[in-house]
Automatic annotation (TrEMBL):
Residues of the ABC transporter domain: 5-227
Protein name stated in the entry: ABC transporter
One family name in Pfam for this protein: ABC_tran
Span of the signal peptide: none
PANTHER family: ABC TRANSPORTER ATP-BINDING PROTEIN, ABC TRANSPORTER ATP-BINDING PROTEIN NATA
C-alpha cells in the first residue's frame, strides 16, 4: 500500500513548551488513523504541521508525496479544531462557497444532506446551534471529495445521533478510498472508525496500533465492578484479583459465566452492594492506563499551586 501521510522526527516548541518532541508516523492510503491524547498533548500542533499551517522546528512531513504546503489543494480536506466561517452566510451558501474554491467538487446539496442539515440549510451560520455549526464545518472540509482528509475533533459538540451520522459519513469516505487522519477525545469514535490509533502524550507518540491490539497490550482483562461499602479484604477468598477503587471493588479476570459465582459469594457472606457492572476492556482503558499519569501530574500540580496560593 502507498503511504499518504508521513511524519519524521517532527519537533515544535513554543517559548518554554514542547508541543512535539520528535513524532514519527505514517498513514497508508485508504487508512483511517485516529490520534488520541490528553489536552495539550500536541495533537492540533501535529495536524497543523502535517497540513502546512505551522512550520516544525525540525523534522519533516509529507502528504501525498509532497511537502504539506505544496499538496494539490483539490486533493486535501482539512477541518481545523477552531474554524470560524463567515457568520452571515447560510449553511447552504457556506457549503456552496467552499465548493466554489475547487475545480471539482461534490454537489453542495448532497453534502448538506450527508451531514444531516437538509432542514437547516437556509439558516445563517451564526443562528445554527454549536453542533449544527460543526456539521456545516465537516461538510465544507469534504466538499472537494479529497483524497486525504484531516479532521481535528470533528464531532465535538455534536449530539449522539448526529455523531453517528458523521461516523457513517467517515466510514463511507473510507470505504471509497479516502485517507482520514482524525483527532478525537471520544474513545468510542476512535475505536469504531480507526484502522490504527496513535496515543500522543507530552508531544510523544507513546503507543500505536490497531484498537484491538492496543486493548490486548495495555487494557488488562475484563472486570466486574461492585458498588459496595465493603473493602477488598471482604473479597480475599474469591479466586480472582481484586482492588478497591473509591466506593467500588473491582474484580478482574471475571468471565460472564463467573458473574454468578461472585454474586453467590456476596450473598453468602452478607456483603452489602448497590450495583454490579461487567465490562470488557476497551480503548478508554488503554487511554487511562497510558495517559492518566499525565492527568494525575497535572491535577496534583494544580492542587499544589492552589494550596500555595492560599497558604
Ligand atoms: N500558537 C501557540 N503558541 C503557544 N503555545 C502553543 C501554541 N499552539 C499550541 N501551543 C501549546 O502547545 C501544546 C500543545 O497544544 P495542542 O493544541 O497541539 O494540544 P492538543 O493535544 O491539540 O490539545 P487539545 O486536546 O486541548 O486540543 C500546549 O501546551 C499548547 O499550549
Amino acid at each position: 500500500m502507498d503511504t499518504a501521510v508521513v511524519a519524521e522526527g517532527l519537533e515544535k516548541r513554543y517559548d518554554g513548551t514542547t508541543a512535539l518532541a520528535g513524532v514519527t508516523l505514517s498513514v497508508e492510503r485508504g487508512e483511517v488513523f485516529a490520534l488520541i491524547g490528553p489536552n495539550g498533548a500536541g495533537k492540533t500542533t501535529l495536524v497543523r504541521a502535517l497540513t502546512g499551517t505551522t512550520e516544525p522546528d525540525s523534522g519533516s512531513a509529507r502528504v501525498l508525496e509532497a511537502a504539506p504546503s505544496a499538496v494539490d489543494r483539490d486533493r486535501l480536506g482539512v477541518l481545523p479544531q477552531s474554524f470560524s466561517p463567515p457568520d452571515r452566510l447560510t449553511a447552504r451558501e457556506l457549503v456552496a462557497y467552499y465548493a466554489g474554491l475547487y475545480d471539482d467538487h461534490r454537489d453542495p446539496e448532497a453534502v448538506l444532506a450527508d451531514v444531516g442539515l437538509a432542514n437547516a440549510d437556509d439558516t445563517w451560520y451564526e443562528n445554527l446551534s454549536g453542533g449544527q455549526q460543526r456539521r456545516v464545518c465537516v461538510g465544507t472540509a469534504l466538499v472537494n471529495d479529497p483524497d486525504v482528509l484531516f479532521l481535528d475533533e470533528p464531532t465535538t459538540g455534536i449530539d449522539p445521533a448526529g455523531r453517528r451520522t458523521v461516523w457513517r459519513l467517515i466510514e463511507d469516505l473510507a470505504d471509497s478510498g479516502t485517507t482520514v487522519f482524525l483527532t478525537t477525545h471520544d474513545m468510542a469514535e476512535a475505536e469504531r472508525l480507526a484502522d490504527r490509533v496513535g496515543l500522543l502524550a507530552d508531544g510523544e507518540l507513546v503507543a500505536r496500533g490497531t484498537p484491538a491490539g492496543l486493548v490486548a497490550d495495555h487494557a488488562g482483562s475484563s472486570r466486574l465492578t461492585i458498588e459496595t461499602p465493603a473493602d477488598q479484604t471482604a473479597f480475599e477468598d474469591l479466586p480472582f484479583p481484586t482492588a478497591t477503587r473509591g466506593s467500588e471493588v473491582v474484580v478482574r479476570e471475571v468471565s460472564p459465566a463467573d458473574i454468578g459465582r461472585v454474586v453467590d459469594y456476596l450473598e453468602q457472606r452478607g456483603i452489602d452492594y448497590s450495583g454490579l457492572s461487567w465490562a470488557e476492556p476497551d480503548l478508554e482503558d488503554v487511554y487511562l492506563e497510558l495517559a492518566d499519569e499525565t492527568e494525575l501530574e497535572r491535577t496534583d500540580g494544580t492542587a499544589l499551586a492552589r494550596a500555595g496560593e492560599t497558604a
